[in-house]
Amino acid sequence: MKHIVVAIDGPAGAGKSTLARRVAARLGYLYIDTGAMYRAVAVAALREGIALDDALKLEQLALACEIDLTGDARVLLDGADVSEAIRRPEVSQAASKVSAVAGVRRAMVNQQRRLGATHSVVMEGRDIGSVVFPEARVKIFLDADPAARATRRVIELRQKGMPADAAEVEREMRERDERDRSRTEAPLRQAPDAVYLDSTALTPDEVVEAVLRIARERTSNGKEADR
């Protein structure tokens, strides 16, 4: 059986993680948060004091890191649970810089492709449909107004007990958007055959149903898993 890839790309705070996790559950596919992989490398770099502009050391670090994504959405870095650590604001900023390093991206893309070769997956990130799986039949580019994205991120951080200033979060998010779109290696962009979906005015349920409709239209296996 040929495995199916549902590729969901888009900027930070658009709702990719929530969407991808729910769609994967509905379809019975494996959920892969590629952003968490880059964040894990960023955690390792910060802990080891590696400069975020040292491309060689960052590539070596990415190749050496053992990153596991568990079925219950935990992220393990060399066996240790870093699920909370990777969501801290300083790690988000570091991850944006780490992910711009060509060697780091190559290391992570190789891991992502191996996962997609062995499972049907819902994979979310910045370049899944454009670089990692350009042949994927189901591609979504999920977007939202920057202010709405910043508000969502503030709510997420505060729910986890982390301090979050709305203006600062929006400023950092806009800076990250610019870095992601202007980087030389695999910039954030919509794949030509991806469906653009603006989630600003939609509920999470509405976004999930929209993606499931697209999956059914583009594949013969777009049925929901028995639950």
Describe the model:
The structure is a single chain. The chain has helices spanning 16-27, 34-48, 55-64, 89-98, 102-118, 128-132, 146-159, 166-182, 204-218, and strands at 5-9, 30-33, 67-69, 75-77, 80-81, 121-125, 138-143, 195-198. By secondary structure, the protein is of the alpha/beta class. The chain has a single domain (5-217), classed as P-loop containing nucleotide triphosphate hydrolases (Rossmann fold, 3-Layer(aba) Sandwich), CATH 3.40.50. The strands form two sheets. A five-stranded parallel beta sheet has the order 2-6-1-7-8, sandwiched between helices. Helix 2 crosses helix 5 (102-118), helix 3 (55-64) runs parallel beside helix 5 (102-118) and helix 7 (146-159) crosses helix 8 (166-182). The longest helix is centred in the middle third of the chain and has 17 residues, at 102-118. The protein starts with a strand and ends in a 9-residue tail after the last helix.
Defining traits:
Rossmann fold; globular; alpha/beta; 9 helices; 51% helix; three-stranded antiparallel beta sheet; 227 residues
Task: Give a short summary of the structure.
The protein is α/β, with parallel strands linked by helices and 227 residues long. 51% of the residues lie in helices and 14% in strands.
Major β-sheet, in short?
A: 5 strands, parallel
User: At the fourth CATH level, what is the homologous superfamily?
Assistant: P-loop containing nucleotide triphosphate hydrolases
Query: Any idea what the CATH architecture is?
Result: 3-Layer(aba) Sandwich
Under CATH, the topology can be stated as Rossmann fold
Name the quaternary structure: single chain
Task: Give the spatial strand order of the biggest sheet.
Answer: 2-6-1-7-8
For the record, the CATH class is Alpha Beta
- The string of secondary-structure elements, in order, is EHEHHEEEHHEHEHHEH
Number of domains: 1
What is the CA–CA distance across the termini?
22 Å
Mean pLDDT comes to: 90
Put simply, the count of helices is 9
Question: What is the beta-strand fraction?
Answer: 5-15%
What structural class is derived from the secondary structure elements?
alpha/beta
Dominant shape:
globular
Number of strands: 8
| Unreliable residue runs | none
Q: In percent, how helical is the residue content?
A: 40-55%
Radius of gyration: 17 Å
